[in-house]
TrEMBL record:
Origin organism lineage: Bacteria, Bacillati, Bacillota, Clostridia, Lachnospirales
Region Disordered, annotated ranges: 26-47
Domain DUF3502 residues, every copy: 445-511
Superkingdom field: Bacteria
Gene3D superfamilies given in the database record: Periplasmic binding protein-like II (3.40.190.10)
InterPro entries linked to this entry: Bact_solute-bd_prot1 (IPR050490), DUF3502 (IPR022627), SBP (IPR006059)
Xref: Pfam families: DUF3502, SBP_bac_1
Signal peptide region: 1-20
PANTHER family, A to Z: ABC TRANSPORTER SOLUTE BINDING PROTEIN-SUGAR TRANSPORT, ARABINOSE-BINDING PROTEIN-RELATED
Species for this entry: Fusicatenibacter saccharivorans
UniProtKB keywords: Signal
The protein's name in its UniProt record: ABC transporter substrate-binding protein
Length: 514
């Protein structure tokens, strides 16, 4: 891995602005470079050149440090797939702006993600390449690795245009809480199996600690996702489950309905309203700028709602925030339909085969994955006795090294290739969780792609309206009946019924084609 190459294509490295975030690698075993079989290239064949644009929540590294990682990748990929890779790294916040500029300018960009946006528009306008012909060749290892049905959300009329990143496919709803406080008060958390059961817990903690913020307001949306999507079994059909603007459908009924007019949404709002009135949410819960990290580190916040894609997230909270935390599961898991997040090959790519070969490595090659996530072993990280990535000598943490992208460990490729961090999953725990992900429960509408391109004005208007009200409803800071009536009236005036009708027509057509 220390081998130097004789010639490196020097690249102009474009960098974006810094976006701070929270997260960390959770699980995955890496077999390393040595255990990968190589496909030796012919000496007479010049390596292909592929531009790969990815993103980071960590510090943007110096150009020389990014070039160091690029050189290590190329040292490997030239031998393995006869391809050189140019790394183009942007901050999460600036990623899509920069990618769209590159696409519009005609600058070389071969592999990119529809990050936090619909990949359907890139399929429809011809930007995304039809990669169907490569699935059984250059991407064969990847297709054999993917979760069951994982290509459905990126397949249109029998043609596949991209691949989602293999993050968590099994995400039960949960609540992460201060374990020392429940033990002190004799609270039996094994009796908590659903959100409503938390009311009695919150009451006991508030009585003992009247000045404590019981619930972190920043993750209130996670409760709505768990309750609506995984208990009520609602599919947002391409929307955000916690803030739908174009209608949803229940698993047992394919009729698209306004989520805000359902009994389930109203009852959940009434529950959070009762919590707010009891003081479990702070009075400024809808407007506070205090982050989850700040609240939990202060010692004056009991807990936060979360997804348990990482079942040991509480251990990471304990390590990061200085207090003992534990999780309780409050819902099952269900993966619903969605139309965003695909990694795609640009249709203007001069060598699609090379781009697909590199994409294949992102899903199947531990050496490449960990270079992108953690950087160079021995320089940017080292492995402890359990195979967990830890700070190298001379550093106190993984985030202060010259190169790391560990906060985005699951944003591309296959998270199961990534070394765990301390508190993450390894060994039998990792294998158990991995199997849960492969067995993850999918919505009946998984693979449905909602296209609102001809009603974008109405969609945007409704989205802006929901944005005004959602946080107050999530944390119970607003009267439920008055707020829902006002919001629904405005949504209808902005065209929500038209969006629902259009979605119903598309869903009916999709269902009949199955």
């Amino acid at each position: 891995m220390k081998k130097k190459i004789l010639a490196i294509l020097m690249a102009t490295l474009t960098v974006g602005s810094l976006l701070s975030g929270c997260g960390g690698a959770q699980s995955g075993d890496a077999t390393g470079k040595q255990e990968s079989s190589k496909q030796e290239s012919s000496d007479s064949e010049e390596p292909a050149e592929v531009v790969f644009a990815y993103m980071t929540q960590n510090n943007i590294p110096e150009s020389s440090e990014l070039e160091r990682i690029q050189n290590l990748i190329n040292d490997y990929t030239v031998d393995k797939i006869n391809t050189k890779v140019k790394l183009v790294l942007f901050s999460n916040s600036d990623y899509m702006n920069q990618v769209n500029l590159m696409l519009a300018s005609g600058e070389q960009l071969d592999l990119f993600q529809a990050y936090n946006t619909s990949h359907l528009k890139y399929i429809q306008d011809g930007t995304a390449l039809d990669i169907t012909e490569y699935l059984d060749s250059d991407l064969k290892e990847t297709t054999e690795t993917l979760y069951d049905g994982f290509l459905a959300p990126t397949t249109v009329e029998g043609k596949t245009y991209g691949i989602l990143n293999m993050g968590s496919n099994y995400v039960p709803g949960g609540f992460t809480y201060r374990e020392d406080i429940t033990e002190e008060l004799g609270i039996d958390m094994s009796q908590v199996t659903k959100p409503e059961d938390l009311t009695a817990v919150f009451a006991k903690v508030k009585e003992a600690y009247p000045d404590m913020t019981i619930i972190d307001p920043n993750r209130a949306n996670a409760l709505f996702e768990s309750y609506l999507g995984k208990i009520a079994k609602i599919d947002p059909l391409g929307d955000n489950i916690a803030s739908s603007v174009s209608g949803v459908a229940y698993q047992d009924n394919a009729t698209v309905v306004d989520m805000y007019e359902t009994t389930d949404f109203k009852e959940l709002c009434e529950l959070t309203r009762s919590w707010f009135e009891a003081g479990y949410y702070a009075s400024d819960a809808a407007t506070t700028t205090a982050t989850t990290a700040e609240l939990l580190m202060s010692g004056n916040c009991f807990g936060t709602f979360c997804g348990l894609g990482n079942p040991k997230i509480a251990q990471q909270y304990t390590n990061n925030y200085g207090h003992p935390f534990e999780n309780v599961q409050i819902s099952d898991s269900m993966i619903w339909s969605g139309n965003g997040g695909a990694w795609m090959v640009n249709s203007g790519c001069k060598d699609p085969s090379a781009a697909c070969k590199f994409m294949n490595l992102l899903y199947t090659d531990a050496y490449v994955d960990n270079l992108l996530v953690y950087g160079e072993e021995g320089v940017d990280y080292k492995l402890d006795e359990n195979g967990c990535a830890v700070a190298p000598d001379g550093y106190t943490d993984l985030n202060s090294v010259a190169y790391t992208d560990n906060m985005n460990y699951y944003f591309w490729g296959n998270k199961w290739l990534t070394y765990p961090v301390v508190g993450g999953l390894y060994g039998e725990e990792k294998e158990t969780n991995k199997q849960q992900n492969y067995d993850g429960d999918h919505s009946n509408y998984y693979g449905f792609l909602y296209d609102y391109s001809d009603k974008e004005a109405e969609y945007t208007a409704c989205l802006n309206i929901v944005e005004e009200y959602k946080k107050s409803l999530w944390v119970g800071a607003a009267d439920v009946d008055t707020t829902l009536a006002e919001m629904t009236k405005r949504l209808k005036a902005a065209g929500m019924d038209d969006l629902i009708q259009a979605k119903q027509e598309q869903l009916d057509a999709w269902m009949s084609s199955k």
